[in-house]
Amino acid sequence: VWKVLTFKLSKQTFFGVILEGNVDVSEDLAILAALFGYKSIMVLYVFKQRKLQTLMWKLSDFTKLGKPPHFDELKSMILECFDEGKFENRRRLNMCIRYHLDIIEYFSRSTYSKRLNDCFTNEMFIHLTTTGIICGCLENQIVKGYNFGTVLHILAWIGALAVSCFGGQMLMDSSLSVADVMYCSKWYEADVHLRKYAILMMVRSQKPLYVTTGSFGVLTLPLFV
């Protein structure tokens, strides 16, 4: 009871001081946004532990192909899959196709893209919303002539947003670059059947992996701009 009463009195005092003009509303709004964003992300992290565990286990799975799924490894395999004879090239290309399917799980109901979105979409939406509110409040303080620390603060938040968007852009670019690597390989030296398989793999690569951010769209560099 005393804790509830103290909270009520503190809240009334807080808003009373704001109305009197003794406290900068933008500063307090930024603090509240940061606290709300931090608490919300932590709660979502706790509730999504099982999904994160499943995703990390899948990304570290060595059982299917002897190595975890990775786009850079796939690109190296593609560039080397047409360097030998007909049967060896067929075996290597089949390996590349299986490896690519293992990454994107094209025929599965639960693709990597969906798993990533299930784990990070809500968190990234809260992160972007919180960052927008805080940056707006900090810009208001800069306009009012606050010290240089405010500038460093807003640059730090913008930098955190840039890192997130850059990571999302790298994921999309890596998934789309598989088609370019296949085109740069020696597919022209293969027989007709292997060329058809190569074309199908290039077409399949046109569907990128990405992370969404709710109403903000896809997490890429254009979103940061």
Keywords for this entry:
single chain; 225 residues; mainly alpha; elongated
Can you walk through the features of this model?
The protein has 9 helices and no strands. Helix 4 runs antiparallel to helix 5 (86-104), helix 4 packs parallel to helix 7 and helix 6 runs antiparallel to helix 7 (148-184). Residues 1-14 have low confidence and may be disordered. The longest helix is centred in the C-terminal third of the chain and has 37 residues, at 148-184. The chain has one domain. It has 225 residues and is mainly alpha-helical. Helices cover 75% and strands 0% of the residues.
Helix and strand topology:
Elements lengths: L1 H19 L4 H23 L1 H11 L11 H10 L5 H19 L7 H32 L4 H37 L7 H13 L16 H4 L1
Helix pairs in contact: 2-6, 4-5, 4-7, 5-8, 6-7, 7-8
GO molecular function: odorant binding; olfactory receptor activity
Pfam family, one: 7tm_6
Keywords: Cell membrane, Membrane, Olfaction, Receptor, Sensory transduction, Transducer, Transmembrane, Transmembrane helix
